[in-house]
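Help wanted!
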Amino acid sequence: MKRKSQARNDSQGTSLSSLSLAHGKRARLWRLLYGHGPGNGTLLVLPLDQGLEHGPTDFFPNPKALDTSFQFRLAEEGRYSAIALGIGLADKYMREHAGRVPLILKLNGKTNIPDDAEAVSPAFASVEDAVRLGADAVGYTVYVGSPRQDMEIREFGRVRQECERFGMPLVVWAYPRGRDVEAKGGKGSLYAQDYAARVAEELGADVVKLHEPAADPGSSPEPYRSLREDAAARLRRVVRSAGKVMVLFSGGVKQDDDAAVLRKVRLYMECGATGVMFGRNMWLRDFDGALALTRRVHAILARCPR
Amino acid sequence: MKRKSQARNDSQGTSLSSLSLAHGKRARLWRLLYGHGPGNGTLLVLPLDQGLEHGPTDFFPNPKALDTSFQFRLAEEGRYSAIALGIGLADKYMREHAGRVPLILKLNGKTNIPDDAEAVSPAFASVEDAVRLGADAVGYTVYVGSPRQDMEIREFGRVRQECERFGMPLVVWAYPRGRDVEAKGGKGSLYAQDYAARVAEELGADVVKLHEPAADPGSSPEPYRSLREDAAARLRRVVRSAGKVMVLFSGGVKQDDDAAVLRKVRLYMECGATGVMFGRNMWLRDFDGALALTRRVHAILARCPR
Amino acid sequence: MKRKSQARNDSQGTSLSSLSLAHGKRARLWRLLYGHGPGNGTLLVLPLDQGLEHGPTDFFPNPKALDTSFQFRLAEEGRYSAIALGIGLADKYMREHAGRVPLILKLNGKTNIPDDAEAVSPAFASVEDAVRLGADAVGYTVYVGSPRQDMEIREFGRVRQECERFGMPLVVWAYPRGRDVEAKGGKGSLYAQDYAARVAEELGADVVKLHEPAADPGSSPEPYRSLREDAAARLRRVVRSAGKVMVLFSGGVKQDDDAAVLRKVRLYMECGATGVMFGRNMWLRDFDGALALTRRVHAILARCPR
Amino acid sequence: MKRKSQARNDSQGTSLSSLSLAHGKRARLWRLLYGHGPGNGTLLVLPLDQGLEHGPTDFFPNPKALDTSFQFRLAEEGRYSAIALGIGLADKYMREHAGRVPLILKLNGKTNIPDDAEAVSPAFASVEDAVRLGADAVGYTVYVGSPRQDMEIREFGRVRQECERFGMPLVVWAYPRGRDVEAKGGKGSLYAQDYAARVAEELGADVVKLHEPAADPGSSPEPYRSLREDAAARLRRVVRSAGKVMVLFSGGVKQDDDAAVLRKVRLYMECGATGVMFGRNMWLRDFDGALALTRRVHAILARCPR
Amino acid sequence: MKRKSQARNDSQGTSLSSLSLAHGKRARLWRLLYGHGPGNGTLLVLPLDQGLEHGPTDFFPNPKALDTSFQFRLAEEGRYSAIALGIGLADKYMREHAGRVPLILKLNGKTNIPDDAEAVSPAFASVEDAVRLGADAVGYTVYVGSPRQDMEIREFGRVRQECERFGMPLVVWAYPRGRDVEAKGGKGSLYAQDYAARVAEELGADVVKLHEPAADPGSSPEPYRSLREDAAARLRRVVRSAGKVMVLFSGGVKQDDDAAVLRKVRLYMECGATGVMFGRNMWLRDFDGALALTRRVHAILARCPR
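Answered by r_m:
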């Protein structure tokens, strides 16, 4: 298949050896990329911040997932590269998993009760909290393009400096958001995701979490509006815009068709992603189903060493 | 009775032994759960912040309660697990009760003179104040879903970090509030209380104070809007959403029917609550009446060891 | 007279011996209550912040009062418990009065050029300034119920903590203010003053300055709107709501009838006030007139030991 | 002439010996009042912040003044008490004048591109910068009566405290400003200038720069609206409202009639000013003309020792 | 040619020897002016912040430029005085170029997704970051005239003070911006650029980046509106308004006509610029074309020693 081989040549993802890193950051990134998970330079991350971001609503399809032990067990038995969650859940549930599952401590968040027209994601934990908990990275949401971006960017800058100080890798949830993003094609468009990828790179992320970009609607700015690219081309574009920042694609809302999920993973990896961060598409299945699907994702990642 | 035994199996509340805690926090929580009050892992807390939150209006039914000695005496003679109040009242009235009644120092608050469309609760005392006063916990209100949630969450995060530093348990008054909460079913709905419970868990509370959730009106989001659950099911749901955070239910406005109050307590405990935080339903009665009712609450809690 | 004796029994004001206080705070409060002024536990305070709060307008009836030496001389010769003013006036005028007249350093203030719909009173001096000047207390205005109360309360909390640190008594000007106060009966109503008294207590004031409460208009909330209490009952009510916080009543705008002023003082003291803080009603008279009136106030206070 | 002698008796300006001052502040003020300039306790200050406040527009009448060497030379050859300008100009141009011309480092400023309805003047240099540059005072603009006065006053308070710490005199540009000032008679009215003078005194200025007050229009508040005072009476009034704060009057827009300028200086000094701060009225003339006018101002100041 | 020689006499640009500088700042500026680049006191800077400021859109004409190695190679092989970019790009790409290409670390930035009516550029890196990376200067955008200028100016002031502390030269991107700038002739007008130049000087820049000023439209304020100056006169005017601050002119959007680009460079240098900062006009060409054009710019700069 032409697309596949082309992807292999063009965009194999960023590898640790190509990066200049301080010792602490290198050690922690090594643990995530080679010491756990697939172990071949790819990343498989299990995120759990939906309870804060969306409320318990998200757990209705699988009430057992309300108990964070579910996700910790899944992360450990499924050999995830890391679990990504906030201080409250980490503090209460990681005891028996400490050391066995790397932790990405998510530092900021908000509810979705007010709308996102002027979204801002406040920090409620610090890099020092992450150090104390033995985390191997911190996670931080930046609402790219929000009218309150000055607050977002300034706070992000302080977090990044703390990361330098402690040798802590920084995973950015780069989420286009706000009324101007909506007016310019929406948060899911290639324009928005591509811009978000570049912002993550220029602001100093080590890893960026993005959504699969959709084709741009008529309200997107040029030249995006006139692009006619397929899904793979769009994915490769945002991976390219992220430069040396490792890209994880998210799963978004749960999909019932396992094969469709796996096709997505394959596509993302062919297009240069370093890995995937799938939450609801994993922990909204029953435990055994989630584990089985996880194993099939492992099989795909195993074929894409970075 | 079926409901009772089911509750026993499903949701017996969180116990101290199931939690990973730093020494200081464990010591203080132990004092609250076993060293005072019912002494069996349940909590009976007497709150007094209504003078700030609602004004002297609340005291008209029992003017003697305006003198905080009333509540301190009630807390001591009624063997409450703790009294929860602000720095001004603690400083002026706890002298002869120091050591005999544990203190939960409430750190933030506001008046209800402006409306709650953009509610925010500013801190006027610190965790260090709590340490100086010998408190066994601090209390903090978070207005879940307020348009100014970024300010709330950020300030909460700083308080939580101070709590880590000093080994101080953190009791969160998780109150849905603000114009968007009102537009989505109101602050008392199951949707709102359930979300608040989860927010408290993810942000890192040790104990959360919630209100008994009401059935959702048509303006609540799905799937809540379509749920048809009885009071017990709703209570169990929010307890579950709080995870390992201990849940206290509040009494709300005063109810004259003692039997109704006790039925509530019984129901809350059956549904997994760790205890209750009843203010006006206690101190708006004459002293002997309040003491008698307190004893009957003790009798209920005694049957629900955690 | 029945009212008088009743007042004596009910509300004799707060005395120093009934309070738990750190050494420094006790020493400074002792100086104000017994070392200067009436010397019997009552307080007679001469405030001078009207130039900042209202502009030079207030001084037109007595231009000599524009020179702060006037008030310092009056405070010393009239044996006031303290003079209360800001850093600029204290720095420039207290030299020859240092030690002879205790100083209450007023830390915050604002002009009345913008209206008070969203009033906030910014600090322009610190508790450390007060220590450096040898002050025996600091003064702080809290605009109770302002839409920007979160800023007011948070800043107040920091000042209170500095007061703890330095053993500095804290006198709160508890002023209901802002558009919501106006919509609920106005700043002078019993509802508003009663709420302000309680707020001062819960936030941690040592002394509170209030205005004599007026009967509530129809726009006040219940139960205030329906109360039918006379002036003395209203005064006793706010004194009660202040708890162990010592209450000073202010004089407000100048009254030309000396006898009326003295009747007010007598009434306030009978209703449980610890003293009065009269500015314009004193320093807008010619020096000898002010001194004579001061002496007659002393005579009243002398009969009300606390 | 009656007016003159009256002025001599009433308001001779503040002298250094009448003030209580910390050593550092006294030393620096002495340098300004007696060590440089007229040397008799009066002040002649050359300000240069118009480039920031109004843009290069102000320099069109005399393009040579765009080169700050012009003002430094004028200040030195004209024996000014001090030159007042910001960090950028001081850093780049004071080398050969250091020590010969005292520096008043202006700490805050803004452009006039947005209008002044909610004016606020942000600090871009610190008292520490002033110390490092060997300045003898700092300058600070306070927009009296601006809707954002809380920000102004709070920041001013921090600067004043730094001045205490370093013994640095504080010169306040007390400028009434903002939409409420405009609604109440405008920034140039006696009401506004008189209020500004008092604000400077209460906030803790050492020296205040004011504009000559104009008669109040019908929109000014009473009693100002009904005053019928001549220019001298108005000037004396604001000098009196400034108390022990030394008053400098500004020159405002350039006036071509030298005699008119000198009449103003004479009037200001007769009315109690400590000196004048003339910028455009000096440096918008050719160098020799500016120097000649400066000398004639010196002659006036020489007759008004303080 | 008359214009040329006139330019030589009037405005030869600022030279290092004419400035009073702390050792660290002089050493770093020397490196930029004489140790690298043209080496004759002129500056040729390659900026790369367009990915953050405008999104990946800017790179469509030359996708290879998305990989920051392209610009680093160009900067090194083209012997630029420095490359100017943010922390993310510097961290990830400067390894093999460290020491060979001086770095100007751009500290602040924002996306262009929200419009610029109230533009503010938040800092996401610090002067300390610049020191750690071995940078020879920092870059900082000030949106001159924005409604939020108080935030801009205050943050700038803090950065400038850090620069003093570390001996770090400060390059200001002085960009007129915001709704009031648009109402007064627009960001490109001589009025706006001339004001921006002066603001940079008064705030304390060492180097300022400006755009070539356009003739003022009818909405510009006087006297600009009535000026009838040619391009060279306008350029000389803004260079003069910048005083001793070295001026770099930017290239703006890409121009395909090489000769036109070179004519611009020649004109800027004749009018007193210290150099140029051309980004898109360089790195949007293919590598060899960019290098060739760079060499021709070098030839021009070589004839304009400062």
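OP: Thanks! One thing I noticed: The interface with chain C takes residues 49, 51-52, 55-57, 60, 63, 66-68, 85-89, 91-93, 95, 109-111, 113-115, 120-126, 128-129, 132, 151 of chain B (CB under 8 Å).
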